[in-house]
Amino acid sequence: MNSLLTALITKRIVATVSALLVVAIGCAAGIWQLGRAETKIALAANLQARQQMPILNANQGPWTLEEAGERRMIARGQYIPEAAVWLDNRPRPVPPVGSASAQSGFYLMMPLRLEGKDEVLWVNRGWAPRNNENRETLPLVQTPNKLVSIEGIAFAHPGKVYELGSNKLSAYEGKPRIEQNFDLTAEGKLHGWSQAPFILRELELGIEDGLVRDWAPLTNGVDRHYAYAFQWFALAFAGFLFWLLSGLRQFRRQGFSNGYRGDQE
Predict the structure, then answer these.
(1) Bridge-partner residues for 213, per DSSP?
(2) Which of 67, 154, 181, 223 is surrounded by the most beta carbons within 10 Å?
(3) Which residue from 75, 58, 76, 206 is spatially nearest to 147, judged by alpha carbons?
(4) Count of alpha carbons within 13 Å of 80, Cβ hemisphere only?
């Protein structure tokens, strides 16, 4: 058996090296995907633990990002709708049952002026569908013109999408803005106000305002990483199997057995 294996390797150097590359790449990619899944699970566990901590009150701050990040928080204040930012190219967090693909839309970022404080808290109020015929036709959303109490989870940012070039903010003109990404620091400089160093992703509390707040689970995507890992490991195994079977066929057809017998004599 050792002589047979040696013959398969030494007489097929190019095929052996190619097979080794396929196996190495497949195994490395599969292990990387498993690592991504484990990282997401660990992050989700950490987020879940932080969200079980006592609820913070934004009006009793100031809070740092380290103190408030990934924790539940309540806030009371009044929205500033004229300063809203619509983040484009955001898929619906959880697609409807039976939907083949995620619907594209907006995240509505709106500043909330905190009651009793000279500070603004940016709120991700939720998701709304985009008008496919006219991108600049914004969804109809109801915004209370009074003090409101909301609850959400604090994050460093609302998530980012790929963007060509730099996102340079223009002078504030008091009209609806459609942006690809949200820069909290740049928004503070643009408006010249004091603001919290985090955003609040509002939770669904039965508020009917035209926005969807059915956020994706914390472990969203883990199953996909496991599926990718299986595919990569399957590719590695297929590469090895192809190398082995093709070598055995070549061994029989081209008389590798002569070299094998010679080794046995």
Answers:
(1) none
(2) 154
(3) 76
(4) 17
Residue 198 has a pLDDT of 95
Give the residues across from 109 on adjacent strands: 85, 124
Structure tokens at 49: 């633990």
Whole-Å CA distances, 188 to 113, 119, 194: 13, 11, 7
Q: Does the pLDDT of residue 77 top 80, yes or no?
A: yes
Percent pLDDT > 70 in the chain is 84
The pairing of strands 104-114 and 72-79 is antiparallel
For the entire predicted model, the pTM comes to 0.70
Residue 145: count of CB within 10 angstroms of its CB: 9
The Cα-based distances of 83 to 30, 157, 158, 245 in angstroms read 45, 17, 17, 66
**DSSP symbols for 51-115:** HTSPPEEGGG----HHHHTT-EEEEEEEE-GGG-EEEEEEE-SSPPTT-SSPPEEEEEEEEEEET
Least confident window among 16-30, 141-155, 200-214, 246-260: 246-260
Q: Under a CB-based contact definition with an 8 Å cutoff, are residues 93 and 80 in contact? A: no
pLDDT for position 154: 93
What is d(CA 215, CA 201) in angstroms, rounded to the nearest whole number?
9
Dist. CA 221–CA 227, nearest whole Å? 10
Average pLDDT on 231-245 reads 91
In the chain, the largest separation of any two C-alpha atoms, in whole Å, equals: 96
> Of 234, 229, 256, 232, nearest to 15 (Cα)?
256
Of 222, 188, 233, the C-alpha closest to 25 is: 233
E strands of 97-241, at which residues? 104-114, 120-129, 148-155, 177-179, 195-202
